[in-house]
Design goal:
Blueprint: H1 2-12, H2 17-32, E1 36-42, E2 48-55, E3 58-65, H3 72-79, E4 83-85, H4 97-102, E5 110-118, E6 124-133, H5 134-143, H6 145-195, H7 203-215, E7 222-226, H8 232-242, E8 250-254, H9 260-268, E9 269-270, E10 282-283, H10 285-288, E11 293-297, H11 304-316, E12 318-319, E13 328-329, E14 333-338, H12 342-347, H13 353-359, E15 362-366, H14 376-391, H15 400-407, H16 414-428, H17 442-451, H18 465-483, H19 488-494, H20 499-509
Parallel strand pairs: 7-14, 7-15, 8-11, 11-14
Antiparallel strand pairs: 1-2, 1-6, 2-3, 4-5, 5-6, 9-10, 12-13
Helix pairs in contact: 2-6, 14-16, 19-20
Length: 512
């Protein structure tokens, strides 16, 4: 029993294929003491035998072709049968130069007994060969002990290989998960960076950034509503850039700018000869948007007949070009925009209710600029910097009086009008000079002046006193934190506040 336990323990301690092979050879040497032994295993390709072993106390290592019958191991491997040669000198046909050199040191009466190593499906794994006197080899073959030992070896080898495959699969899965996690993190960072391009400090702007981030993570149809010039196409493009299909096409069409009789051919395309003048086939915008985003601007102005056809395309993602016999498929994500009050149009029967619900799976509302005057300053800085870069000019900052006048203006044209006003002012401002109201032509200056109800009120842009006080308090604390390098105790003392009160305000106002 003790010998059996020691035998099993020695076999189980082999943790890899090489160690298991050494265990087999050492077991053969200890129990039968042959003059030599070879363990030849097929490599991954199944074309070569990697051999290790010993002969006359000298270690052996060589590689043999699995289908080269100039050595005896190939015969045993391919036939799948045991074979015993009483003598290797004339008894076995050995033409392989490397194998003949290996046997040069063998005694003259040395023979060879080789047996194939087969897995559970009787597929060859390799060959185990013993070199010794022919009489001893015949006795060893008759005892069947070597066959039993080789079966144990093959089963343990299969177990180790299966464990190795499982371990490799686990590592591959971990690597794949790490790559996916890293890619998701990278995409989140890119989305955050892109969404950060939406300028503005107002609550409406913060809410818009949250909505864009959320909508970029799914494929639902998005309807963007807002007044003319509020930036609907900017948001639509940002949605596409933040999505998983950012590398695919972004295809836009203005439904209000195309005549009614041409919208269908623009969207769906047409075949050559479909109508008079169709000299060649044309791919429609729906087909061009395959894999990406189709943006329908001013969808509220779409003719009723096209609304029904668009609804069918949205439900099936199939369409038929004009003059075509077969339908085509396009896997696109729809983003639509309008300044029209679609709900009112639905009630009046001017817009299909089923299409409205299909478009409105995700609704994003852009607040007009007059309702978020605190966004005018960062938008102005951005447009001035953009103009200076484009024109290669050095411009000064926006004069405070000009900024206050802008913040008091109603901006019926929203962000687009603000950009146009500032471009005119920048173009009329001398190099290096601050940008003031005087740079505007008389009619634009008059428009701004008429819109300000109380020009003497420097705080006319404030619409929420509580919010304004919080923003002022946060800016004071943030400036003092920078001054003292983040030391809250010194900041609290400089502001005559208990440190506990300052900590509470920092948490509430999100000041770090």
């Amino acid at each position: 029993m003790q010998a059996c336990l020691e035998f099993a323990l020695a076999m189980s301690q082999a943790q890899d294929q090489g160690a298991l092979g050494e265990w087999l050879l050492s077991t053969v040497r200890a129990h039968w003491q042959p003059q030599g032994a070879l363990l030849a295993l097929l490599d991954v390709s199944g074309r070569e035998l990697a051999c290790q072993g010993w002969l006359q106390q000298a270690s052996l290592s060589l590689t043999l072709a699995a289908d080269d019958f100039s050595h005896p191991l190939a015969f045993v491997l391919n036939r799948g049968q045991n074979r015993t040669w009483d003598s290797l000198h004339g008894g076995a046909r050995i033409e392989h130069e490397g194998f003949r050199q290996l046997l040069a040191e063998a005694p003259r009466h040395c023979g060879l007994h080789a047996m194939p190593l087969l897995d559970g499906a009787q597929r060859p794994l390799g060959v185990l060969a013993l070199l010794d006197d022919g009489t001893r080899l015949q006795a060893l073959n008759a005892s069947h002990m070597l066959a039993t030992l080789s079966c144990l070896y093959v089963r343990q080898l299969a177990l180790l290989r299966e464990l190795g495959r499982s371990e490799r699969d686990r590592h591959a899965l971990q690597d794949s998960l790490r790559q996916m996690t890293a890619e998701e993190a990278r995409q989140r960072q890119q989305r955050a960076a892109r969404v950060g391009q939406l300028l503005g400090h107002s609550q409406a702007s913060q809410r818009l950034r949250e909505q864009v981030t959320q909508a970029a993570g799914h494929r639902l149809s998005v309807l963007i509503q807002g007044e003319t010039g509020s930036g609907k196409e900017v948001v639509a493009r940002l949605l596409h850039q933040c999505s998983a299909h950012a590398s695919q096409p972004f295809v836009a069409i203005n439904c209000a700018a195309i005549p009614e009789n041409l919208i269908e051919s623009e969207l769906f395309g047409y075949q050559k000869g479909a109508f008079s003048g169709a000299q060649h086939s044309k791919q429609g915008l729906v087909a061009q948007a395959n894999g990406g985003t189709l943006f329908l601007d001013e969808v509220g102005d779409m003719p009723p007949a096209m609304q029904a056809k668009l609804l069918r395309v949205l439900e099936s993602h199939h369409f038929r070009p004009l003059g075509a016999e077969r339908e085509q498929h396009s896997d696109f994500r729809l983003v639509a925009a309008t300044h029209q009050p679609l709900e009112a149009h639905v009630r009046e029967g001017r817009f299909r209710q089923d299409l409205y619900h299909r478009l409105c799976q995700c609704l994003i509302w852009l607040a007009p600029l007059r309702e978020r005057p605190e966004d005018i300053a960062p938008l102005s800085d951005h447009f001035i910097a953009e103009f200076a870069h484009r024109e290669g000019r050095q411009l000064g900052a926006l004069e405070p009086a000009f900024l206050r006048r802008l913040q008091g203006y109603g901006f019926p044209g929203n962000v687009r009008e603000l950009k146009n006003l500032l471009e005119v002012a920048c173009a009329q401002t001398p190099l290096g000079q601050p940008i003031g109201l005087a740079a505007l032509p008389g009619e634009l200056m008059s428009r701004l002046g008429q819109s300000v109800a109380r020009p003497q009120d420097e705080y006319h842009h404030i619409r929420d006193l509580r919010l304004a006080m919080q923003e002022f308090e946060a800016s004071v604390i943030a400036a003092r934190m920078r001054l003292f390098g983040g030391n809250r105790l010194q900041v609290a003392q400089s502001l005559n506040l208990p440190k506990r009160t300052l900590d509470h305000k920092c948490q509430k106002l999100e000041v770090r």
